[in-house]
Amino acid sequence: MDEKNKLVSNAAGREVLIEINGEEHSPYKGVGKHIPEGNKAAPKINSCSQFPDSGDKRVESIKEALKRSGLRDGMTISTHHHLRNGDYVANMVFDAVAELGIKNVRWFPSASFPIHTPIIKHLESGVIHHIEGSMNGPLGDFASSGKMKGIGILRSHGGRYQAIQDGEVHIDIAVISAPAADSFGNANGVRGKAACGLLGFALADSQYADKTIIVTDNIEPFPCIPWQIQGNYVDHVVEVDSIGDPEKIVSGTTKLTKSPDRLLIAELAVQFALEAGIIKDGFSFQAGAGGTSLAFTIFLGNIMRENKIKARFIRGGSTTYLTSMLEEGLTDYILDGQTFDLDGVRSMRDNPNHQNTSPFTSYNYHGKGNFASMLDVVVLGATEVDLNFNANVVTHSDGKLLHGIGGWQNCLFGKTVILPLPLFRNRIPVIVDKVTTITGPGELIDVIVTERGIAINPRRTDLIKKLSGSKLPLRTLEELKAEAEKICGGAPEKPQLMDNVIAAIKWVDGTVIDIVRQVKY
Amino acid sequence: MDEKNKLVSNAAGREVLIEINGEEHSPYKGVGKHIPEGNKAAPKINSCSQFPDSGDKRVESIKEALKRSGLRDGMTISTHHHLRNGDYVANMVFDAVAELGIKNVRWFPSASFPIHTPIIKHLESGVIHHIEGSMNGPLGDFASSGKMKGIGILRSHGGRYQAIQDGEVHIDIAVISAPAADSFGNANGVRGKAACGLLGFALADSQYADKTIIVTDNIEPFPCIPWQIQGNYVDHVVEVDSIGDPEKIVSGTTKLTKSPDRLLIAELAVQFALEAGIIKDGFSFQAGAGGTSLAFTIFLGNIMRENKIKARFIRGGSTTYLTSMLEEGLTDYILDGQTFDLDGVRSMRDNPNHQNTSPFTSYNYHGKGNFASMLDVVVLGATEVDLNFNANVVTHSDGKLLHGIGGWQNCLFGKTVILPLPLFRNRIPVIVDKVTTITGPGELIDVIVTERGIAINPRRTDLIKKLSGSKLPLRTLEELKAEAEKICGGAPEKPQLMDNVIAAIKWVDGTVIDIVRQVKY
Question: Are A32 and B54 a contacting pair at CB < 8 A?
Answer without folding.
Answer: no
